[in-house]
């Protein structure tokens, strides 16, 4: 019941690798780390969700907020590595339409 | 309609800290009942959403409140009730805003409001009453061999 956030930076690209659960308890921590990164013009914020075991609407809300912020500050936000479960709630809520989501499937042979 | 066999109740502080504990407990019960992996994940999200709603809306700052989660286990279904004793939110106005973000521009997206939509989508039956505090009652049916007639939004897999 925790969330780990690992941050790496190369020039203006920030990669956040998440592991654990994103819910009402852990989401404020994610917001605190992610939102300021979207508030600088030209920043590219890449969030790797492959280690996320659980996410609900509180987590979705944080991404919606970060997306809005990236539009407002001319930065960009990309999500990648979603598990099937996480992808499902983005799909159900229609957020796959507005989010920049990399659709590569990691480690799965076709 | 079969009768209830077991009832489990939890009463936890309405704080974000306990949402995960409730989710894990309900997940354990659903697993015990024989729900499939995906169904358990759906139930976990629905329960978390209902409890999170109470945490976010039911009590004003500084007022300490509890949230009560009741779980009725039947042969064919799980019925979960989430109750607060805080001020009711306006269910009607929230219901009107329910729905996926289809066709909305980024500016129109609201950061909250997806919770009740998810509950409604992920569970088979959902009832909300807001007379004294808010009560959310949600049901998930065990789909064993027969196709359930109670399925609301989640369609049964096509046969064959």
How would you describe this protein?
The complex is a heterodimer of chains A (110) and B (160). With 110 residues, chain A is of the alpha/beta class. Chain A is 35% helix and 34% strand. Chain B has 160 residues and is α+β, with helices and mostly antiparallel strands. Chain B has a single domain (6-141), classed as Heat Shock Protein 90. Chain B has 4 helices and 5 strands, in the order E-H-H-E-E-H-H-E-E. Chain B has helices at 19-33, 37-58, 91-96, 114-122, and strands spanning 6-13, 66-73, 77-84, 125-129, 135-141. In chain B, helix 2 packs antiparallel against helix 4. Chain B is globular. The relative contact order of chain B is 0.18. The model of chain B has no long low-confidence stretch (mean pLDDT 81). The A-B interface holds A 1, 21, 23-25, 28, 54, 56-58, 60-62, 64-65, 67-68, 71, 85, 89, 92-95, 97-98 and B 16-17, 19-21, 23-24, 38, 41, 44-45, 48-49, 51-52, 55-56, 100-102, 104, 106-107, 109-112, 114-115, 117-118, 121-122. Chain A: Positive regulator of sigma-B activity. Non-phosphorylated RsbV binds to RsbW, preventing its association with sigma-B. When phosphorylated, releases RsbW, which is then free to complex with and inactivate sigma-B. Chain A: It comes from Fictibacillus barbaricus. Chain A: This is Anti-sigma factor antagonist.
Net shape of chain B: globular
Structural class of chain B, by secondary structure, is: alpha+beta
Order of helices and strands of chain B: EHHEEHHEE
Look at the structure and give the mean pLDDT of chain B: 81
| Beta-strand content of chain A | 25-35%
Mean pLDDT of chain A: 92
Assign the CATH class of chain A: Alpha Beta
| CATH architecture annotation of chain B | 2-Layer Sandwich
Task: Give the terminus-to-terminus CA distance of chain A.
Answer: 32 Å
Number of distinct beta strands of chain B: 5
Work out the helicity level of chain A. 25-40%
Tally of distinct domains of chain A: 1
Separation of the first and last Cα atoms of chain B: 28 Å
Largest sheet of chain A: 5 strands, mixed
Strand order, largest beta sheet of chain B = 1-2-3-5-4
Put simply, the count of helices of chain B is 4
The DSSP helix count of chain A reads 3
User: Spans of chain A of 5+ residues with little confidence (pLDDT < 50)?
Assistant: none
């Amino acid at each position: 019941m925790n969330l780990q956030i690992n941050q790496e930076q190369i020039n203006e690209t920030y990669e956040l690798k998440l592991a654990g659960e994103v819910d009402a308890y852990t989401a404020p921590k994610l917001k605190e780390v992610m939102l300021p990164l979207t508030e600088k013009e030209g920043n590219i914020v890449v969030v790797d969700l492959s280690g996320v075991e659980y996410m609900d609407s509180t987590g979705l809300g944080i991404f919606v907020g970060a997306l809005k912020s990236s539009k407002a500050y001319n930065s960009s936000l990309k999500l990648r590595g979603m598990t099937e479960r996480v992808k499902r709630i983005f799909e159900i809520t229609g957020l796959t339409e507005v989010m920049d989501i990399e659709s590569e499937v990691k480690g799965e042979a076709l | 309609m079969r009768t209830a066999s077991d009832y489990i109740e939890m009463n936890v502080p309405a704080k974000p800290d306990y949402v995960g504990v409730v989710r894990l407990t309900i997940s354990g019960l659903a697993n015990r009942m024989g729900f499939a992996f995906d169904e358990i994940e759906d139930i976990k999200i629905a329960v978390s959403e209902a409890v999170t709603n109470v945490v976010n809306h039911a009590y004003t700052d500084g007022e300490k409140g509890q949230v009560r989660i009741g779980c009725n286990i039947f042969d064919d279904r799980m019925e979960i009730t989430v109750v607060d004793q805080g001020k009711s939110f306006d269910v009607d106005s929230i219901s009107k805003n329910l729905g996926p973000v289809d066709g909305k521009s980024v500016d129109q997206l609201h950061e909250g409001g997806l919770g009740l939509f998810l509950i409604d989508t992920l569970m088979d039956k959902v009832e909300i009453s807001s007379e004294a505090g808010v009560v959310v009652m949600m049901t998930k049916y065990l789909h064993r061999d027969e196709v359930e007639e109670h399925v609301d939004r989640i369609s049964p897999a096509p046969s064959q």
